[in-house]
Amino acid sequence: EDKKIKSAQNQSGGALERYINSLSAVNFSFILQSSWIASGATFQFALANGGPASIVYGGIFAGVGTTLVATSLAEMSSMDPTVGAQYRWTASFAPKYNRFFGLMQGWITSFAWICSGTSNPALISNIIVSLATFNNTEYVPK
Protein backbone atom coordinates (compact mmCIF):
# COMPACT_ATOMS: atom_id res chain seq x y z
CA GLU A 1 0.00 0.00 0.00
CA ASP A 2 2.92 2.37 0.71
CA LYS A 3 4.17 1.79 -2.83
CA LYS A 4 0.78 2.82 -4.21
CA ILE A 5 0.83 6.05 -2.19
CA LYS A 6 4.38 6.88 -3.27
CA SER A 7 3.53 6.09 -6.87
CA ALA A 8 0.44 8.34 -6.71
CA GLN A 9 2.53 11.14 -5.19
CA ASN A 10 5.12 10.82 -7.92
CA GLN A 11 2.48 10.91 -10.65
CA SER A 12 0.76 14.00 -9.29
CA GLY A 13 3.98 15.81 -8.50
CA GLY A 14 3.64 15.26 -4.75
CA ALA A 15 1.89 18.58 -4.22
CA LEU A 16 -1.61 19.49 -3.17
CA GLU A 17 -3.88 21.43 -5.45
CA ARG A 18 -3.88 25.11 -4.58
CA TYR A 19 -7.40 26.46 -4.31
CA ILE A 20 -6.76 29.63 -2.29
CA ASN A 21 -5.60 32.59 -4.35
CA SER A 22 -4.47 36.03 -3.22
CA LEU A 23 -7.97 37.50 -3.32
CA SER A 24 -9.30 34.72 -1.09
CA ALA A 25 -6.49 35.31 1.42
CA VAL A 26 -7.20 39.05 1.54
CA ASN A 27 -10.94 38.46 1.95
CA PHE A 28 -10.33 35.93 4.72
CA SER A 29 -8.09 38.33 6.64
CA PHE A 30 -10.62 41.16 6.15
CA ILE A 31 -13.41 39.05 7.65
CA LEU A 32 -11.18 37.59 10.35
CA GLN A 33 -10.17 40.98 11.69
CA SER A 34 -13.76 42.27 11.78
CA SER A 35 -12.68 45.30 9.83
CA TRP A 36 -16.04 45.35 8.04
CA ILE A 37 -17.68 46.12 11.39
CA ALA A 38 -15.18 48.87 12.10
CA SER A 39 -15.60 50.36 8.64
CA GLY A 40 -19.38 50.36 8.85
CA ALA A 41 -19.50 51.73 12.37
CA THR A 42 -17.02 54.54 11.75
CA PHE A 43 -18.64 55.77 8.53
CA GLN A 44 -21.23 57.59 10.62
CA PHE A 45 -18.58 59.86 12.15
CA ALA A 46 -16.94 60.62 8.82
CA LEU A 47 -20.28 61.33 7.13
CA ALA A 48 -21.45 63.60 9.95
CA ASN A 49 -18.21 65.59 10.14
CA GLY A 50 -16.95 65.76 6.58
CA GLY A 51 -19.46 64.17 4.26
CA PRO A 52 -18.77 61.63 1.52
CA ALA A 53 -15.63 63.46 0.42
CA SER A 54 -14.03 62.81 3.82
CA ILE A 55 -14.54 59.07 3.35
CA VAL A 56 -12.94 59.09 -0.10
CA TYR A 57 -10.05 61.44 0.62
CA GLY A 58 -9.61 60.13 4.16
CA GLY A 59 -9.23 56.62 2.76
CA ILE A 60 -6.67 57.82 0.25
CA PHE A 61 -4.67 59.73 2.88
CA ALA A 62 -4.85 56.81 5.32
CA GLY A 63 -3.69 54.42 2.60
CA VAL A 64 -0.74 56.64 1.67
CA GLY A 65 0.20 57.09 5.34
CA THR A 66 -0.01 53.37 6.04
CA THR A 67 2.14 52.65 2.99
CA LEU A 68 4.78 55.12 4.19
CA VAL A 69 4.85 53.55 7.65
CA ALA A 70 5.09 50.05 6.15
CA THR A 71 7.92 51.19 3.88
CA SER A 72 9.92 52.65 6.76
CA LEU A 73 9.37 49.52 8.87
CA ALA A 74 10.47 47.37 5.93
CA GLU A 75 13.62 49.46 5.54
CA MET A 76 14.48 49.11 9.23
CA SER A 77 13.79 45.38 9.19
CA SER A 78 16.10 44.95 6.21
CA MET A 79 18.89 46.76 8.12
CA ASP A 80 18.35 44.96 11.45
CA PRO A 81 16.13 41.87 11.24
CA THR A 82 15.12 41.03 14.79
CA VAL A 83 12.25 39.68 16.83
CA GLY A 84 12.00 42.79 19.04
CA ALA A 85 11.08 45.03 16.10
CA GLN A 86 10.15 48.61 17.02
CA TYR A 87 11.61 48.86 20.52
CA ARG A 88 14.85 47.22 19.38
CA TRP A 89 15.12 49.53 16.36
CA THR A 90 14.38 52.56 18.52
CA ALA A 91 17.19 51.57 20.88
CA SER A 92 19.55 50.85 17.95
CA PHE A 93 18.94 54.03 15.98
CA ALA A 94 19.05 56.45 18.95
CA PRO A 95 22.55 55.80 20.32
CA LYS A 96 22.68 58.61 22.90
CA TYR A 97 19.40 57.83 24.70
CA ASN A 98 18.88 54.27 23.50
CA ARG A 99 17.73 52.79 26.83
CA PHE A 100 15.16 55.52 27.48
CA PHE A 101 13.68 55.51 23.97
CA GLY A 102 13.68 51.71 23.83
CA LEU A 103 11.78 51.59 27.12
CA MET A 104 9.28 54.22 25.94
CA GLN A 105 8.71 52.36 22.67
CA GLY A 106 8.09 49.14 24.59
CA TRP A 107 5.48 50.86 26.75
CA ILE A 108 3.85 52.51 23.75
CA THR A 109 3.65 49.15 21.98
CA SER A 110 2.11 47.50 25.05
CA PHE A 111 -0.44 50.30 25.34
CA ALA A 112 -1.28 49.93 21.63
CA TRP A 113 -1.96 46.20 22.15
CA ILE A 114 -4.31 47.02 25.02
CA CYS A 115 -6.15 49.66 22.99
CA SER A 116 -6.50 47.44 19.94
CA GLY A 117 -7.86 44.66 22.13
CA THR A 118 -10.53 46.92 23.59
CA SER A 119 -11.61 48.67 20.40
CA ASN A 120 -13.83 45.90 19.01
CA PRO A 121 -15.87 45.40 22.23
CA ALA A 122 -16.35 49.18 22.49
CA LEU A 123 -17.50 49.32 18.88
CA ILE A 124 -19.90 46.42 19.32
CA SER A 125 -21.39 47.99 22.46
CA ASN A 126 -22.09 51.16 20.45
CA ILE A 127 -23.78 49.08 17.75
CA ILE A 128 -25.95 47.31 20.35
CA VAL A 129 -27.05 50.61 21.92
CA SER A 130 -27.79 52.02 18.46
CA LEU A 131 -29.92 48.99 17.59
CA ALA A 132 -31.78 49.24 20.90
CA THR A 133 -32.48 52.93 20.30
CA PHE A 134 -33.58 52.28 16.73
CA ASN A 135 -35.92 49.40 17.57
CA ASN A 136 -37.40 50.85 20.78
CA THR A 137 -38.35 54.51 20.47
CA GLU A 138 -38.97 54.84 24.22
CA TYR A 139 -35.45 53.71 25.13
CA VAL A 140 -33.15 56.51 26.26
CA PRO A 141 -29.49 55.58 26.74
CA LYS A 142 -28.05 56.89 30.00
Automatic annotation (TrEMBL):
Q: How does it sit in the membrane?
A: Multi-pass membrane protein
User: Which is one Gene Ontology cellular component term of this protein?
Assistant: membrane
Compartment(s): Membrane
Q: What is this protein called?
A: Amino acid transporter
Which regions form coiled coils?
none
Keywords, alphabetical: Membrane, Transmembrane, Transmembrane helix, Transport
TM annotation in the entry: none
What Gene3D superfamilies does this protein's entry cite?
Amino acid/polyamine transporter I
Q: What is its main location?
A: membrane
Source species taxonomy: Eukaryota, Fungi, Dikarya, Ascomycota, Pezizomycotina
